């Protein structure tokens, strides 16, 4: 082997060259490798997951299957990264064999394949006639559970045959509906529904599928997982494999204005129909999870029509039929549950103060203990009585596998793929700071501030003021490919992100306070929060502040434009122009009815809609605004964006419209995401990165609001 002698000065510079980082760009956000959720082996020593990477030159997303050894901390590629042959939903059949859905270009129906970890050999397992997914596997009885879209109560083969007939005979494209919902999220509601199927696997040296695939919802009007965004968390199998629990709605007209979703129990043998266990509660339930002992935990809301009510933890005992509420006084809303192997401890994931934390609940004493205090946790798996597996992401990085030793309380961060590691190591990531100020109702309000790359405290920086959607959501210490604050810090902005009234993780009252107060308490919080950071951080340039928001944040951008001129520019993504129009065109009618106090065709309720509608204050709009909307957004339809743009253009306010015909409420396609970021950054740069600031007249938002409201209501009613 040849040997090379490096000059001494070059050896000194090498660490500096290797450590050189760069500011994050939109391309980094889009091309950063994205790990999926983790699936653990039965013995808890391995975890399998997929990783996707966007190739911007080819405009293709490459995916591959990865294996993490939790003992040696070695990450191994099981398949090559490809766009024509990819894998999804991997899980362990046993400690040596992994199953996954194989997606191959040109194949009509993707099927489950099995990969042996020792030999590397793989083979096709299933030959189902239609697409399927949301897979769970019960090792005790070798039961494969999955969902598929079929005609109500029908079989997989029936769905295939009927689809074929319709394709051959139906010449028109007309869709006919006799009831709501007509469309949901980004899809017109089809005749078919999601049903849950179960089939036995056999293993005689090689896994095969049994002959009897059972639709457990046959003969019912039930649908599970929910359409169109339900997933495998909507159902669970008991440890003995005898029972399946699932949440379901019955398709009916009131689906559009009710959130009712109930827990059902059905034997996996299919010998009897599902039985509802909480039909007396006219609200949403979710996340059923069996304990090894056989009891069932699930999450229960009690407020009708309210998708952001506090989730209570209910435990149902199938032996007695009794239901017990756990930790009733805990003012948090858990979203994910898991039991310890002895069934005496319940693990729960819940938002708290800008984090997605993991808690343990002693089911004897109901003592609650926070097991994590930072970042955002997801994909919880119980490996043993003393070890948990999950992913953590933060404002600084995407999902990374972690294990927690429950005895020592040691949290171990595991290795990531070489591709993800090398990408992260070259990025100059902004570390978040926090602040708290007194907002509306004298409540403490929490916010985040992130400084730009190569920050210099002696300089003045423009501010990107981000407003979250929901409104029942929160800016948290979590990673996202949408609205990632690091994009703006990478572009030279200080990011300020406040969680005003209506946000989650600060107690249920704080979340509920926004109802019938869309333009008051949150607006006050945002104004006060911005004042606070400007007063306490000399490096912020008060004359170069831009505000950006999506969904409810987009609503607030329109509201801001009618109530203050303090911002240099605005960005409205999929926001509301008219609260009245939004009610009549949205998919989920219950949302507006809950937020504004009822149906708008009752006079008193209409007053609330009108009071908080940005459309009533367009005469005051002066701030340059970028409007973004998408054609498949059925939550807030594109007419809201067109109306906003029309109001701006007709009044001569500098404005621009960015429209995506093929996106929904979120811009998800990588190339479209790059265009979104390009337009947004160019827009705010145009107005915030200038040497001289134009002086515009300011009016008092409170007095202006009061006069306008009184005049409007007296003239209309």
TrEMBL record:
Keywords: Hydrolase, Protease, Signal. GO terms for molecular function: serine-type endopeptidase activity. GO terms for biological process: proteolysis. It holds the Pfam family Peptidase_S9. InterPro entries: 6-blade_b-propeller_TolB-like, AB_hydrolase_fold, Peptidase_S9_cat. The keyword Transcription regulation does not apply. Residues 479-689 form the Peptidase S9 prolyl oligopeptidase catalytic domain. Residues 1-19 form the signal peptide. Belongs to the peptidase S9C family. PANTHER family: DIPEPTIDYL-PEPTIDASE 5, SERINE PEPTIDASE S9 FAMILY MEMBER. This is Dipeptidyl-peptidase V. It comes from Phycomyces blakesleeanus (strain ATCC 8743b / DSM 1359 / FGSC 10004 / NBRC 33097 / NRRL 1555).
